[in-house]
Description:
two-stranded antiparallel ribbon, alpha/beta
Amino acid sequence: MEKILEKLVNNSKNAIDDGVYNISESLSNSGIDLGEIIINSQHAPLITEIKFSSPALGNIRKVVDPVDIASQMVNGGASALSVLTQPFLFDGSPELFMKVRKAVKIPMLMKDITIDKIQIDAAKKIGADYFLLIQSLFDKKMILEMDELIGYGHKNGVKVIVEAHTSKEFENACKTNADIIGINNRNLDTLKIDLNTTKNILEKTDSSKIIISESGIESQEDIRFLHKCGAKGYLIGTAIMKNDNIEHTVRRLVNSI
């Protein structure tokens, strides 16, 4: 059976071939440094994620105009927004991202399986402040150009979050010029989640990088646990998208700290 990560890479290849990232419009990003927001935040700095489907859960929420969702997240105190641009399995698109970009002024992450400079060109055009790279793709030799892709992003004014799941991946990610390191509590090959992933990685390291924790975060208690482990920011999608009152949910989570 095809592994999930391999399928995600193939989906990005298919999206590239289908012209998903051929963007004619050009939007500005926020110009705001999310890293500084995370460092200086008096509460829990959240990157709240707009996603309507996922490989793990299938449909999460009916696809609706994302601007209302984004507005509720911002009003609730989100520090940044993550918006899926991958159409396969996630129901995302660059067009969906641009709708949100035009409506909000906070930093935005283009959430996708980035494997090619074409996607980074798209990130710049749609007004993304950050794009995502997954360390395991490079460690497993699925793609070979981590430094080149980071450098290309920086050259084009787009910062980078590099995501790791294991201690070795984290160690390798910290050696890059990534602006932020994300620890994904979800194993992308099995889709299993364990918040102790963040704990186990951070208790073995003393990195000077800005560290965020991703996946499986559902409650104030989760955020307090991850904060105690050393995470400085928190990317939360499903727990918010499944809730009827998004603004209240985000505000409550922001006030965990």
